Write the structure tokens for this entry.
Amino acid sequence: MIQEFHHIHFRASSFDEVRAFYCGVLEAEDLGLVTLAGAEHLRLKLAGQILNFAPDAPGRVSPAVPATERLGIYHIAFTVDNLEKSCADYESRGARFASDVLRPTDDLKVRFIQAPDGMHVELMELLT
């Protein structure tokens, strides 16, 4: 039986870009590099969750598919207390937004940030 969520794994074209975005903009904790299956992987911690980033396969350069066009995971989401204040803070640290503020329901405001390799990070303010 599943006990708890442990981590999510992404492929990354550049660990430097990943660090700059997730650590520099979103203030993730850099847990360093770990060797898995003979290759170095970058491990970060954000909002209590482990994010692992693997390099592309040796000798291959996979295209980054934009979040709006990919199958599988295309964004990760985090709640914030105040969406506008959070967006201004992240923008001051270099965040580029993929959307304006959206209201998918009466009790929710969201906005998407562009992340490396075509991913998006969703910021959610719950209005209840």
Q: What stands out?
A: The radius of gyration is 15 Å.
